[in-house]
Amino acid sequence: MSLSRTMYKCASIRQFSRFSHAVYTPAAARATAGGCTTSLATIYCSPRTVSIVSLKMQRRSMSRLAAIMEQTKKHFKNKVLNPVDLSKPPPSIETIADFSNEDVVKQWKHESDARIGGESTASVTYEAGGHLSFEGNLSTAVPAGARIKQSGYCLLRSPSLVPSFFGEAFHDFSAYNGLELEVRGDGRVYICNIHTDGLQQEDLFQSAIYTRGGPLWQKVRIPFCDFLLTSLGYVQNEQAHMDLTAVKTVGILLADEVDGPFRLDIRSIKAVNLNDVVSTMEADAPKSR
Question: Staple partner for 162: which of 35, 63, 71, 108, CB 3.0–4.6 Å?
Answer without folding.
Answer: 71
